[in-house]
Amino acid sequence: MIFILLSLCTGCGPQQINAITTNTPLPTPTLKTATNTAIPPTVTPSQTPTLVKPSDTPTITPTPEPEGCREPSHNYERIAINNHQLNMRTYEMLEYATSLYGGEIDITGSAITQGSYSRAVEASFGTHAGGGAVDLSVMAPGTWTILEEDIEPLIRALRLAGFAAWYRDFDDLYLGSPVHIHAIAIGDLELSLAAREQLAGPHGYFWGYNGLPTNGGKPTRDPHGGPIVCNWMFERGYPNKTATPSP
After folding, report:
1. Which of 76, 85, 182, 230 supports an S-S bond with 69, CB 3.0-4.6 Å?
2. Pairing, β 84-87 against β 78-81
């Protein structure tokens, strides 16, 4: 029997003969091939969270915290100012902004032109349908004179108090829309979906934009230099790359 197998495999080496004789399968050779496996980067723990953001927006970090930051209360009792509804949290934030601002625009009283919990102005995109939204006149009391020099100091005071706030010029929202400051209280638990989008959506405050939706175009840069971010905002989950973060 062995003689016949040898005759059939005269070119076989010793290992091949043994495999044929004993019916033992040949071992499969191990092939070493080069791979393109990427080496994962080393991740170092840090106290500063990394913000996933569009490539053309500034990095936002929680420190150093701007002087003047103060976390708002959690008082959602509703009140009426000039027949406009607000919650106490928003009103207290306006009071604090007043103390930082120190100008003549009465943002806790006569300057309030639109409040919260209202759909009275459809051009506001629904941002006033929940809590935390307020529009403020920037005109000298009893006149049509715009207090232009007060606008930037008041915007900064509102932002330190916890608002996303922007100046809206004539015709910004629709033909004939009035000048005013539009403000959204960050972290308000009763914000409308549209207001939350103005904070962290693709055209929102925390990305450095002006909060106004676009018709398929690029959002417009914040004309006031970008957000003021206090540490308490990070604790509430802001900034956030999603359009509808938890307040």
Report:
1. 230
2. antiparallel
Give the closest residue to 153 by CA, choosing from 79, 101, 207. Answer: 101
Over residues 142-166, the pLDDT tens digits come to: 899 999 999 999 999 999 999 999 9
**Rounded CA separation 158/13 (Å):** 89
50 contacts: CB under 8 Å, gap ≥ 6: none
Cα distance between residue 104 and residue 121, in whole Å: 26
With CA atoms as reference, report the closest residue to 224 among 195, 191, 182.
182
Residues whose CB is less than 8 angstroms from the CB of residue 195 and which lie 6 or more positions away in sequence, other chains included: 126, 127, 128, 129, 130, 132, 133, 184, 188
How wide is the angle at C-alpha 204 spanned by C-alphas 190 and 135, nearest 5°?
Answer: 60
| Alpha helices in 23-147, H assignment, sequence order | 88-101
Look up residue 197 and give its two tokens: 């989008």
pLDDT digits (tens, 9 = 90+) for 43-88: 333 333 333 344 454 455 555 889 999 999 999 999 999 999 999 9
Interatomic CA distance for residues 155 and 223, integer angstroms: 11
Mention every residue, 6+ apart, whose C-beta is less than 8 A from residue 117: 78, 85, 128, 129, 130, 131, 190
CA atoms 170, 174, 177, 180: torsion sign: negative
Distance CA 132, CA 128 (A): 8
- Distance from C-alpha of 192 to C-alpha of 155, rounded to nearest angstrom: 22
Q: Note the pTM of the prediction, 2 decimals.
A: 0.72
Q: How far is CA 78 from the centre of its chain?
A: 27
